[in-house]
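Extended Data, panel c. Modelled sequence:
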Amino acid sequence: MFWRSVVGKLAMTILLLVSFVLFILTILLLEFFENFHIQEAEKNMIQTATKISSFIRQGEEDEDVFETTERVKDPATQVVIMYGKDELFVSEATDKNLSSIDHSWFREDIPYEEILNKNEAMYEQKMLPESDTEVIVVGIPIQKDEVVIFVYQSLDVIEQTKAETTRIIFLAAGIAIILTTFFAFFLSTRITAPLIQMREAALGLTKGEFNKEVPILTNDEIGELALAFNQMGKQLDFHITALRQEKEQLSSILSSMADGVITLNRKGDIVVINPPAQQFLDKWHFELDSDDKLPERILYLLEKVISEESETIEEISVQGRNYVLLVTPLYDQNYIRGAVAVIRDMTEERKSDKLRKDFVANVSHELRTPLSLMQGYSEAIIDDVAETKEDKNELAKIIHDEAMRMSRLVNELLDLARIEAGHVQLNVEPIKIFPFIERVTQKFQNVSEERNITIEVTGKVEAEIAHIDLDQMDQVITNLLDNAIRHMDDGGNINICVNNDVEQLEIEVSDDGYGIAEDDLPFIFERFYKADKSRTRDAKERGTGLGLAIVKNIIEAHEGEITAQSIINEGTTFHITIPNQ
């Protein structure tokens, strides 16, 4: 609405202020002019009376005095000359109200003797008897001649003059108000036009339009305000851009962090959260079947941090994974306004610790048995328990076998460590794949003939050449064939299916041996993991549990993949895929 705008308020303020000033000024002017007209009338009447009195003092004849009186008086006034109380001279008057009255009231109401005795001029306002006419009476005594000259005039004449003056004053006031109204709106518009532009620019700032500038039309305070507003917009644009970049940078950092981060206020509301923390909460909600935004445990830690004003740490388990929660107070100067919770997934670390402990235990276990045997049999030789040469040779052979077993274990551990550390460089070269597979199978010809095991090589070769590391792949195939032979009965069958094209090499080693239990199948590529030892044909031929781990690392070094499928008492199949580079 117009009256609620700055233009309306400023214009109305100026208009009301000017109207109030004009109202007070009009009252004062009316009072002033009213008194002025009365004083002027009294002054004129005094002058008239003084002139008449001068004629009387000069001893002029009464007729001359009366004639002179008619000439010198104002037509609107009337002159009464009292020669004592009984003799009156009354001049003519143009005012009908004065000419029609009975002048006997002079004898009754005018203090003739008092005026003579005081010898001072008289000024009075009187109401004519039996009339609504009010008059101003001026009297001058001539004490020597005992004459009092009265000049009186109706106030209606003064009222007419006053009314004319009032009309002129009100006309001037009306013109002044009209001009003031025009000036007020003009001035308000001139002042508020830049303000309206600033308002539009301010609304633009709320919408993010920081480059919008207000035109500087004047060099006064409003112009300086417009200049300051433009500078403020530029500064806001600069700072908002800097804040946006920092926010994006912080968001990118939080999103790329492996640890979960949650920022909370004192009420427990989530202010900032990154994807790992959201995944953690999703897992927690799924496990507890709860729809709460924040688990009670984190709320408890938040309250603890706020009350104790110190960070706290706690380890919890969710969905089979181990997490460490570090909750740190977030300060606003000396006031704790919330907390930051850092959530770290420690599952792999705990798993590594367990693997390290299991590794030490497994190595100790694997070494303890051959060392015990070697110690026992060597003591038997030293103590001459074995009397014959054949017995001593038998014990020495057992010691030799256990020493070889220990050597094989140590070598495999070293090979696995080098491969996992990336210290082994592959020597990839073009190899004719079928001759290579047949050469590897020749290593097992004697044991296969001895146990009546058939090893068959089949497949489809579109490309004769495969790009592999000859020695490393030799170890892979040898290990798979050795495992297959050791975990099957005599008379079994092993099939090696080779498919090679320009894109990839596929090798599939299948047997019809004992198979691997379903529970053991996911762990067969881990170090020292062994399936049911009862399925091994000969206890002396048990492996170290490192072969398949080495195989997997070699295949992955070739950027390939190895998988296993098995059914108990039906056989096992290992499938290898390697890209042809």
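The CA atoms of residues 435 and 464 lie 10 Å apart. This feature is highlighted in the accompanying rendering.
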